[in-house]
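Exercise 7 asks you to align residues with tokens for two separate proteins.
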Amino acid sequence: MSSKKIAFIQFPGSNTENETINMLKKHGFEPFGHFWNDPPDMLKNYAGYIILGGFSFEDRSRSGIIASLEPVMQEVKKQSLLGKPVLGICNGAQILVESGLVPGNENFNTLVSLADNKRVVGNRIVGTGYYNKWCYIKPNEDSLSAFAKKGGKPLRVPIAHAEGRFVFDKDVEKEILHNNLITYQYCDSSGLLSKDFPTNPNGSLFSAAALSNPSGNVMAMMPHPERTLNNEAGDIFSSMKKYIESDKPFSYKALRFESKKTRVQRFEKNKNKTEILISTIIADNEAGSVEKCINGLGIDAKIKKYVHFEIDGDIDLNSLLATDVLFNPSKEYMTKIGESSGVDRFLVRNNDDIHGQSITQTLRDRFNFTGLNSVQRSVVWEIKINSGSRKKDVDLILNSHIFANPVSQKCHEY
């Protein structure tokens, strides 16, 4: 195996392969493309791996989740245990987080989430959703990461994402800080930190721009170091090369943290709030992709998806619907679903419902719905199992986390 051979892993919807090839060549590597459906065994021939940015499987269900369940990621896990470096960039970072490679708990449990961007000044949300700009990040001097240079200066890098906010629970936070797993933090040009926008462009806890595993050989990074114009983030790739060429013995380390289990509670409908369910007029490609992924896990199931709104306040519903803020009537419509035998439904809601908060703010500020208290946006997934092991298969689906990340979302029986 050549110490120069690096595989960049591509899923449907991945991009930035040309930028990655150029950056790897600039640092003396030999880049090779590896598609998600190439034989996983081929990955044994490489000294390291980069999981590209982009929109794998069009970010359906949740950014990175479908790609994380593909067989190729099982081989990446095996290679990471041998000490080989794995760098996930943007969507690649989301894939590493969803697969449990970062922050690297035993059995690759899911411990963190990359949630919706929340641009904050003080306590006020000034923006949500996709955001791209140039920013600065600085390395953690105490990190053991293979991708951080000791004594490194702030790096100027571009970002381009909608779900890049690192979030984790308080108990996991202690483990992350104790082990110095936050490898890079957003900062200003002089290296000063701030939790506020624009220095922190997405609201990440502790201004985290990249997170590593305890061994330091796997890193999930939201900014795009491969897109820099003049090798401004070259420290990341030169550090990776130095790590590969070193003769230091490697010992894999994992966190030993009791991860969250998928717990499903019954959704309690509030008679004082108005519920709306939305379906699509055209084919629901998102539900189709999730169904195909579940089928790939060996479960024969049919999947449907609905968008769910819960509206609280003294408002005229018809006037609110006429704004077209909740849904697009050209391709969506309101619907109702009743009891059906052999069908399971689960409502998934973000712990921090950025979309609902943004919708509420728009309806109040732009359309003068002063009596509106809140709009909460959720997704309802409907499962029909076509086998004799319904309960077992539903449990397998829920525990795959394809519907909900247990760190940033809650799942209810609906």
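Second protein for Exercise 7:
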Amino acid sequence: MTVTFLHIADIHLGFQQYGSATRFDDFGRSFIKAAEYAIEREVDFVIIAGDLFHKATIDPSTLLQAVGALDKLRKADIQVVAIAGNHDRARYKDTFSWLDFLSERGYLALLSPVFGEDGIELSPWDGYDGAYIDIEGVRVIGVPYLGSGIHAILDDLSVEISRLPDPAITFTILLLHAGISGEMPRITGGLTQNELADLKGDVNYIALGHLHKPFDRDDWIYNPGSLEICGMDERRWRGGYYHVSVGDPDHSNLWARHIRHPHRSFYRLDFAVDEYKQFDELLGSLRSQLELETESFKSSDLSPVIEISLTGVIDFDYADLDIDRIRQTADEILSPSIPPRVRNVTRPLGFDMPHIEHGSRRELEKAIFKELAMRDGRFDRHADQLSSLMSEIKKEVLTGSPPELIIARVQKWLVELEDTVKDPVEDAVTEEE
């Protein structure tokens, strides 16, 4: 008998990307389309490898998106099996998450081992709790996001899987929300294939989520990528889901096809500013380039998300760089449903010493720090706070504060800033997370 399933991850329901209601709807629509694909192909079950939701606290509209797709699958008698990712797990000290809510109401089976002093315990799904579930001779074992803790439990996990009863189980899936080391250059701390090697004798398919880039390794490790683009840096990846078939004899004939999920296109237009002596000259050239690019931006039924990335050195008064006029010009030419984004990573040609009449040395120093902060497009809106932080850090360095305390202070400031920066998710998701 052939068993088929759909492997999905990183759906991120509730993500109102760039503050856009249109993007909020896109994430919900993508999950519905994935569910409809599963129903049309008559798969036996669907596995979700974490991050069904974008955050632990969701609003009613987000819950409706989840229930809408999951109810379609339930009515089609398709079992859904899920684990918690780092985005949708219960908050610290909370014991009940929205995934638990969906599980309690029969929309999905939320898997997790029991973690105790003596190691981990893998118990069968009983309709409310459990670490594994058996469907049509296929066993699905789920481990939620553990961060760096995943490394410590792998040996125990391998032993416990090998001890599980095996009544007619011929194919085993391990569902993990974890990254693989080396898949994304800026991300460290992921699992290595060597760490997973001990599982190969007892696990036939490792179903990953967490990294938004799709990949597979050794016809054994599979990561589908996210359904939607969660940040401009992901625009070149074509995430989706795996449609997997396990056939006779004894479920040993594995066929896994990656299905690229259709989604709104993302474009980044890099525009170098170095050659322009006046802002109006820059704006006129940018207008001409946008008019040339208009047709390529309209190649899809869905209007794209467009980002203009300004790069290089400004050779005129930096105060004349009018980001609002650039944004308005792009909006006028392209008429997108989502306002164009402007990413300013330029820098001034020189450094003008700020003039503070009768100002103290401390005030002058803070003004210089503010000028430096404003040169970085990531922090220009928070230049006052950053300049104060820089002054305080300088003082701590001169008074001999331990480096680890200074680092901790900077990290704390960045965490507090995370919810208000221009694009908090593009970096956060690429961390991941």
